[in-house]
Amino acid sequence: MILAFPKIDHEKDYVYSWMPFSLLTVAKPLLEEGIAEVVLFDGNEDPPEAWELVLDRHLDDAVCVGFSIMTGGGQIGHALELAAAARARDGCPPLVFGGPHVNVLAEQTALHPHVDIALAGPGQRSMPALVRALTAGTSLEAVPGLTACRDGVLLHGPANHPTVESLGRYPWHLLDLDRYVRDDPTVAPRTLNYVSSQGCAYTCRFCYELTYQRRYSTIGAPDLVDDVEALVRGPAIGGVKFYDADFFINLHRVAGFCRGLEERGLSIRWAASINPRDVMRAEARHPGLLELMARTGCSRLLMGVESGSDRVLAEIVDKRVTRAQVLDVARRIADVGILGSYTFIVGFPGERAAEQEETYGFIEELSALSPRPESRVHVFAPYPGTPLFEEALRYGYRPPASLEEWSGYDYYESQTPWTDERTVARARGNTRMTLRAAGYARARS
Considering only the top CATH level, what class is 172-380+419-444? Predict the structure, then answer.
């Protein structure tokens, strides 16, 4: 089985690329159940000519070739380039596309000539079923989440439900972990990223995570501590940056993780994403959790604030917090010495100019805290499958109509008729992030 993570064209001043967790997640059951051997290709780390070597060495033995794609960032275009190179080879096996973009636009994806099969939903459930069907020569229509075009007719498998059983430790041996160690000034000199859950329980109307239908699957605290300890003892990392949509949905798990670090004497620094309501819940149900987090190495919390306008928060985003509550949460985070990193969005459909000014004013208000928070301002980009995508259509947005057209979708640029280059420039001018690539420091403010 060849699994490819196509290159992502990150924002111009973004200095990190991270491990292809979508591939590791799919590879895990294939290996554990003895279904197939797995070869990984990471387009963020490997040059294009390395893909040709992978095809030279493994294509003849591959039952299929899988590509993980997300909406935006250029990944779709790079996936199509990789798929074209594979398709040009004699005896090319089926080309299978999955990932976040496919989860919401499976039929459109399946209609592309370089796509034989599209798999929507959790790949750790659909891919093993597909490989078994391909090797046994049985019907593909039993594969969960499958969409395929055969002679102009779309075939569909049964639904692939978003909830999966508890996640487990990753097959790290498939990667050279040292290639993914990053010098992160907000965490530690030797930091690895990590995804310990799938899904989110909140209802923000712009967010792709809603496509998981508010379902949430996790690696349990004991297994997570085991895995982090193995990484500390093995490649000798000093920090972990959790890239979960929200690390704090299950506060008991967070407390168990922190206590596990403390009990084992693991001296690491870590960072994660959090929702303001998580902090409010912790204050009520887990008093002292923020202090415990700080004591066990939490150095940075990334929080989507979205807007400084109470109307936008309530009526457009459905954030279910007020500006005053966010400010109180930010103060609590700062009080325990954790760096707050706050993200905002301007250009929502129906947002007024005065409400954007409220957002920029709120960023300045937060900047008075100590430690001084980071801030990043994004321009609203409509994501298919979300309520605000449908709202954007009513305001005149015209989305790409094919997989090829989605290849040029850049969520860091203006995508809607009511935003423009000035909107983008101001957003970037109000972004204050600490950025450093290995070997040198750089700060943007």
Answer: alpha beta
